[in-house]
Amino acid sequence: MVSSAAVGLEPQTVALLRGGPRAAVTVAVLALHLRGAADAGRLGTIRTSRASAGAGLVLEKAVHASLYRPAGIRELLERPRVRRTLAELRTELAEAGLLRRLPPHRTRTARRALKELRATRPLPTGREGLTTDDTLLAVALYGDAALTVLVPRFAAAAGLIGRGGLAEHGQSWGGEGGGIGFTDDGAGWGGGSH
C-alpha cells in the first residue's frame, strides 16, 4: 500500500490530484479561512481578513497574496501568482511520479494513494472531533460533499459550492473540477463535474 506520508501528499496536493486546480485552490481558501486569514466577501467572493496569512503551504500564500481585492474562485484561478504556483505543484507531482504530463492525468500510484486515503478516511458526518488538518484532507478527498457537511455557510457564501454567487454570474459551472482540471475518474483533463 502507498501511504500519503510516503508520497508527501498535503491536502492541497491531494485536492489537485483528485479534482484539479479548482479543488486545490478551494482547499487553500478553506485553510486560510480556518486560520482567520480569509473570509467570504460580497456576492460569492473571497476576501482577506485582517489576520495575516502567516505560515502556510505555498499555494495558500499565493492565494492570500492574490486576494489583493475580493475575487470569486474562477477569477482567483486566473490570477498570475496562483497559476504559476499551480503549475509548479503539477511539475512537482509529475517529478514524483504521481502525474503524467502528456496527456495530463493521475498515474496508477496517485490513484492508489487516493484510494487508500479514502479507505482510511471516510467522508465525515460532522465537524465534531476533527482537527483543521482533518477538515482540509476531507475537503481534498471529497470536494463539495465535504464542504457541504463541514463548512456549509462559508462554502456557500464564498461561492465554493453552488453557482458561486454573482461573482461567477454568466460563466458555465463545471462543478468541483470546473475549468481545466481532472475528472474524478482520473481520465484526464476536463471540466467534468463530480
Can you put this structure into words, describing what you see?
The protein is mainly α and 194 residues long. The protein has one domain. The protein contains 9 helices and 6 strands, in the order ααββαααββααααββ. It has a two-stranded antiparallel ribbon. Strands 3-4 form a two-stranded antiparallel sheet. β5 (181-182) and β6 form a beta hairpin. The chain starts with 10 loop residues before the first helix and ends with a strand. 44% of the residues are buried. Mean pLDDT is 83; it is low at 1-7 and 164-194.
Topology:
Elements: H1 11-19, H2 21-34, E1 38-40, E2 46-48, H3 58-66, H4 73-78, H5 80-95, E3 99-100, E4 105-106, H6 108-120, H7 132-142, H8 144-150, H9 152-157, E5 181-182, E6 189-190
Antiparallel strand pairs: 1-2, 3-4, 5-6
Helix pairs in contact: 1-2, 1-7, 2-3, 2-7, 3-5, 7-8
Protein name: TIGR04222 domain-containing membrane protein
